[in-house]
Every structure is written in structure tokens, then in C-alpha cells.
Amino acid sequence: MKVLVVDDDELVGKAIGRILRKVGCEVFHASNGEAALTLVVEKRPDLIISDVRMPGMDGATFVQTLRSLNDQTPVVFISGDLGRFEKAVNDLLDSGEAQGLIDKPFLPEKIQNLVQRK
């Protein structure tokens, strides 16, 4: 399974990558929504794990843009604090445009379970 991890915190991105590689995933990393859109086209991931709060294009806007391009890759958000993005994220979850939310800090098992369910 190919997984794109979108997070502006390099340490978080690397930690998620290590967890996913242990269960056999091929992992790509982007530090913002704009870079993630490019990788979606180039790598065609099976799953996207995206932070919500990022500089530039936030996670909610990233998913909205992805869906406007008719890309239906499943997206799971990760966040330690939704803050002002709470309504946008909840709307995406309620509409089915995003498939889940994992709170930071997270247990490795939560990340592993994502790929084992797909």
C-alpha cells in the first residue's frame, strides 16, 4: 500500500513513516498541501494521512481541493488541536469526504490499523 503523509512537522512525518513501513507500506511525505497535491498526481497513493494545521494550505483546504479534482483517495486527518478548523474538518468527516480523525499524540497501533483496514 502506498501512503502519503502530509505534515509540516518533520518529526511527526518521520514517526508515521516508520510505523507504516513496519507494516509494509511505501511512504511518501509532503510538508504542506501544495506539495501533497503534486505527490498525489505523481505517486497515486492508496491512503493519505494529513495534518490539519499547516502553513499555507491547511488540511481541510487540501482535501477540498483534492475532491474538486475528482480524486477520491481516502484521507484521514491527524491533529493535536483543530482550533479554527474544527467546523471544516467535521463537515468533511460528516460528508464522507474525509474518512477519520486521529488525535495527536497517537499510538502506533492507531496508524497501523488504518492500513490494515484498507
Would you spell out the secondary-structure blueprint of this structure?
Elements: E1 2-6, H1 10-22, E2 26-30, H2 33-43, E3 47-51, H3 59-68, E4 75-79, H4 86-95, E5 100-103, H5 108-117
Parallel strand pairs: 1-2, 1-3, 3-4, 4-5
Helix pairs in contact: 2-3
Bin the strand percentage: 15-25%
Average pLDDT, rounded to a whole number, is 93
Query: What is the tally of beta strands?
Result: 5
Distance between the termini: 9 Å
What topology, given as strand order, has the largest sheet?
Answer: 2-1-3-4-5
Radius of gyration: 13 Å
Q: Label the overall shape.
A: globular
User: By helix and strand content, what is the structural category?
Assistant: alpha/beta
Helix content: 40-55%
Residue windows where pLDDT falls under 50 for at least 5 positions: none
Helices and strands, in N-to-C order?
EHEHEHEHEH
Oligomeric organization of the protein chains: single chain
The biggest sheet, with number of strands, parallel, antiparallel or mixed sense and barrel status, is: 5 strands, parallel
In DSSP terms, counting alpha (H) and pi (I) runs of 4 or more, how many helices? 5
Task: Based on the model shown, name its key terms.
alpha/beta; 118 residues; five-stranded parallel beta sheet; 5 helices; 46% helix; single chain
What does this protein structure show overall?
The mean pLDDT is 93. The chain starts with a strand and ends with a helix. It is globular and about 35 Å long. The chain has a five-stranded parallel beta sheet with strand order 2-1-3-4-5, sandwiched between helices. It has helices spanning 10-22, 33-43, 59-68, 86-95, 108-117; strands at residues 2-6, 26-30, 47-51, 75-79, 100-103. By secondary structure, the protein is α/β, with parallel strands linked by helices.
